[in-house]
Write a structure and sequence with these properties.
By secondary structure, the chain is of the alpha/beta class. It has 7 helices and 7 strands, in the order αβαβαββαβαβαβα. The protein has one domain (about 30-215): Rossmann fold, CATH 3.40.50. Strands 4-3-2-1-5-6-7 form a 7-stranded parallel sheet, sandwiched between helices.
């Protein structure tokens, strides 16, 4: 007879446990912004330093900051919020080679399943800021666009940081994906592109003010 702890049924219980833990921990978080980016960019990177500034500005404006909890841009995001005295959240993932949680997390959750972790990012964020990164960062970016494009979630700001990094991807979307009819022209307006920390906060604040004036069903916070 199959051992329960190695069965598919037991996996369902583990998934359920992660969902409950995440929801109970984050449900009173209030307005929060998720910051994504490469775990491989060090303190020497301008993007790392800019991520600290962006998170600092968000925290000063009373937005909680959520990251993936690891090193690189994730650490910078948590550090900027933590140093400002804001709420710094890390949604860590258990991986074979990564990742050690960074030390700048006030609230720290650990996930075994990527899809549960991704749900927490979407459910508890009023905006995404996407710094340069690899496959994981691109995954979060495109999933957000897909969910908005298909009306599975309400539209919220998705901000790409660093036009020089993203230029090739945007050109490809326009020249190949749009031209081939695989997306609509309006889909290219589902995201913003910025180059300085000062450009980020006004976009988030404008969206938050809109939410306060136009509450969504089940919204967790009010203005």
């Amino acid at each position: 007879m199959e051992d329960l702890k190695t069965s598919e049924a037991w996996r369902v219980f583990r998934i359920q446990s992660e969902l409950i833990d995440g929801i109970e921990t984050l449900n009173e978080l209030g307005p929060a912004v998720s910051i994504f980016g490469s775990a491989r960019l060090s303190e020497k990177s301008d993007f790392y330093q800019d991520a600290i500034t962006v998170a600092h500005d968000l925290s000063h404006a009373k937005f909680s900051v959520i990251s993936g909890g690891g090193p690189g841009i994730m650490e910078a995001a948590n550090k900027g919020a933590y140093q400002q005295g804001g709420v710094s959240v890390g949604l860590n993932i258990d991986l074979p080679k990564e990742q050690a949680p960074n030390p700048a997390q006030e609230i720290s959750l650990s996930f075994r399943y990527f899809f549960v972790r991704k749900l927490m990012f979407v459910k508890y964020s009023i905006g995404y800021i996407v710094f340069p990164g690899g496959f994981g960062t691109l995954d979060e970016f495109f999933e957000a666009l897909t969910l908005m494009q298909t009306n599975k979630i309400h539209k919220f700001p998705v901000i790409l940081y660093g036009s020089s990094f993203w230029a090739g991807l945007i050109d490809w979307l326009k020249d190949q994906v749009l031209t081939s009819g695989c997306i609509d022209a309006d889909d290219l307006y589902l995201f913003h592109i910025v180059d300085t920390p000062e450009q980020v906060l006004p976009i988030i604040q404008e969206h938050y003010e809109f939410l306060c004036k136009n509450p969504e069903p089940g919204q967790r916070f009010t203005g």
